């Protein structure tokens, strides 16, 4: 059995080598082995383009209504010790006075 990676576009395991390229016969996607290593960990970035990591402190840049309640997360609210997760809302966190919540990375910036 070969140790070739699955296709990053369709997930097919039937990939093969063609010179220096890897090719997927199912979707015809071509890529190099170096691209596979970079694409494995997609970086989550804030509104300014800075890379975020688990444990970072971020600041909210827009008033955010909390769904299902009358609370509002105000501009400038600092959120400490974030956790990055997959999905539509990239950040899992706890905000003082509101509780656990998920945020989109486009509405925060990395605190200095």
List the helices and strands and how they pair.
Blueprint: E1 16-18, E2 21-23, E3 30-32, H1 33-39, E4 58-60, E5 64-65, E6 72-73, E7 78-79, E8 83-84, E9 91-95, E10 99-103, E11 108-110
Antiparallel strand pairs: 1-2, 2-3, 4-7, 4-11, 5-6, 8-9, 9-10
Mean pLDDT: 88
What low-confidence regions span 5 or more consecutive residues with pLDDT below 50?
none
Helix content: under 10%
Largest sheet geometry: 3 strands, antiparallel
Shape: elongated
Give the helices and strands as they follow along the chain: EEEHEEEEEEEE
Estimated share of beta-strand residues: 25-35%
User: Number of DSSP strands?
Assistant: 11
How many helix segments?
1
The neighbouring-strand order within the major sheet is 1-2-3
| Alpha-carbon distance between the two ends | 49 Å
Structural class: mainly beta
Q: What gyration radius follows from the Cα positions, in whole Å?
A: 19 Å
């Amino acid at each position: 059995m070969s140790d070739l990676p699955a296709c990053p576009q369709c997930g097919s395991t039937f990939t093969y080598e063609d010179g220096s390229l890897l090719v997927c016969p199912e979707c015809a996607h071509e890529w190099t082995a170096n691209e596979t290593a970079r694409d494995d960990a997609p970086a989550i970035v804030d509104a300014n383009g800075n890379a975020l990591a688990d444990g970072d402190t971020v600041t909210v840049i827009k008033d955010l209504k909390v769904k299902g309640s009358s609370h509002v997360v105000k501009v400038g609210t600092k959120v400490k010790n974030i956790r990055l997760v997959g999905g539509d809302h990239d950040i899992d966190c706890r905000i003082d006075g509101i509780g656990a919540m998920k945020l989109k990375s486009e509405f925060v910036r990395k605190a200095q």
